[in-house]
Specification:
The chain has about 200 residues and is mainly beta. It is about 0% helix and about 55% strand.
């Protein structure tokens, strides 16, 4: 993140989280107790405004599931080229790590910890757009429809104009594709402003 030292509050659903560490680039919190299992929005309030990550965190209860259940996908978007690390909230009894699929394509498993309903995978490549995420193990499966959004691969092809005065302040258009979700732009070691 950026500007995280100015964060005043973090909310998981409608409950405040305890901030345990923050500086300009990192923010760590302790999650509040949840009333029920499921995904909640995460909201960060700071002096600069607020930001929300819809369904950004999944509360899970491993003991509550007698069959395989996929409860969350975090993050829920990534590059269409694949290769992003994604954490799946997967609960249910059974031996071994489940297999994971994004839009029908297998996702290699990096790490599995069934005791906390955690499965970490690498996304396969896919076409831009939303795809179902499915897990299967021992004849059982569970699917979250449209749970992952593939974004166009990021490519920066050029700038217009490509030169400007050392005093800065030049409005520059970035040419390319896949800019969805871009929050900041740097010119060398200096941050640009007024991103639109």
């Amino acid at each position: 993140g950026r500007w995280l030292a100015s964060v005043n509050h973090v909310w998981f659903g409608n409950r405040p989280a305890e901030v345990v560490f923050k500086d300009n680039w990192h923010l760590e919190v302790r999650t509040p107790v949840a009333e029920i299992e499921g995904a909640v929005d995460v909201r960060v309030d700071g002096s600069w405004g607020a930001a929300v990550l819809p369904a950004g965190y999944s509360y899970v209860d491993a003991a509550a599931h007698d069959s395989l259940a996929l409860l969350g996908v975090h993050p829920s978007r990534g590059d269409a080229a694949g290769g992003d690390t994604v954490e799946l909230a997967v609960c249910g009894p059974g031996a071994g790590a489940p297999l994971a699929f994004f839009g029908g394509n297998a996702a290699p498993v990096l790490e599995a910890d069934p005791s906390i309903c955690r499965l970490v995978v690498t996304t396969p490549s896919g076409e831009p757009g939303a795809v179902d995420v499915r897990v299967e193990r021992s004849g059982e499966d569970s699917t979250l429809p449209g749970a992952f959004l593939y974004l166009k691969s990021f490519a920066l092809d050029g700038l217009a104009p490509a030169a400007g005065p050392v005093a800065g302040g030049t409005r520059v258009a970035l040419l390319g594709e896949g800019f969805e979700g871009v929050l900041a732009v740097r010119f060398g070691s200096l941050w640009g402003s007024d991103l639109t």
